[in-house]
Amino acid sequence: MPWLVVNVIFNSCFFIDTFVYFFRAYHDKHGRLVFNLSAIRKKYLKTYFLPNVMSIFPTNLLLFFLTKYNYDDESIGFRILKIFDILKLARFARAGSIMKVSDVVTNIRQSYKSQHQELLKYSLLIIVVSHWFGCIWCFVAMVESGGFHADSMCDPDELGVCQSKNWIAYWYNGNYVEGALNPIGFKKDVDRYVLSLFWAIQTITSIGYGNISPLTSAEWFTGSFLMLLSGIMWSYVIGGLVGVAAAMEMNADVHRKRVDDANDLINNFIDDSDDEGDDHCNFLKKSVAKRIKKYVHVQNVLSPNLPNNVCDTSLRQCYPVLETLTPGLELVSSLLVTKKYLDIVPYLSSDVLSFEEQSLLAMECIFLEFSSGEKIKMEESLKDYGRGIFVIRSGSALACRFSSKSNRTKPSVLLTLGMSFGEDMVLVEDGHDATKGVLSCLTFMRIIFIPRGAVLACLERNPHAW
Fold this sequence. Notes:
This protein is an alpha+beta fold. The protein has 17 helices and twelve strands. α8 (114-145) crosses α10 (189-204).
């Protein structure tokens, strides 16, 4: 009775939905939304209307009343109703179209990693197909046994399957042990389902213990057909899971290769037989080797998604999807990634610069990484980027400036997350004493670097920022 109530509730929902489709807009082949009721009804009648009507036929309700009033369950009409009940699977024809237009499904897909979604999809596919195959396998045995009538060799409340020719009776007579799994009996539906599901899983996964096997012609044909489908489905799932595993291990493969490359490099300059008398040289080699290994490890932990784990990347390199967006979306996205770092610099914050000016500046930002113990001279050009402003994303460093008045360095300042260095240095010309300074990394550091050229171009467009 509880399952009947659940079935009636679901059937009622599908009944309402079946006729709501007559008023539901759809997208045509050009992607345009069609609101014309006449066009909507014509398309619906030609496509999903018939499967939807068939899927809401109340077979379970009819079977319940027929059984209640002692209708002959061996009659042709009763069996046709049971077979017609399978047509409820037509409901799944809607699943694809519903998932394509559902905002909920779209938001879920865009909120989680695609590899995790694929893993969940293949897991659910195995569960659902195993359930279907198990139900079909059990259904064949019930049809072969003549239905839900009492058998003279069984208890009055039990099924008439223990003496008829079917795979359940064959398994029962050869494997049943008192107190164990018992598929014989009207109230033993869970045991029958577990046994059928076990057969389905071992068939799909190609394990095939052989303890459950077909007996009649119908069971042999059905089993052969399900095995063919199982082979196709299992190949599809295995192929998909291999792709998911490869995608999930991509970063790990890159890291392992970098570790191997680092070891190759270290093996070429660490040799205790070289310069035996030069203890300083040997100490330096071992110290550098240790720093390299630590840098490669920490970078992989803190920045696993950087392309090839390089130490300097632009926004487009770090987030390749930016190149596929429209110019407007690219500007907005770039700013949303870097805005909290730009706001740390007073004359580059949103209080001074407009949204567009900050967005253009954000596009020029570079993601840099440095190992502990590294020193950066502010007056020297940084690779191809020149001088600029350093905004700390993680880690800590000591910043030391040069005083032109006393002709010596000022006391060091500790810089940590959310602090910047060099915002005043970029405003003076190259060669000036005010550009001199050193940033000494105490830990592994991740930095947003704002190039001097981009800063000056921004200030040129907005004199108020000066």
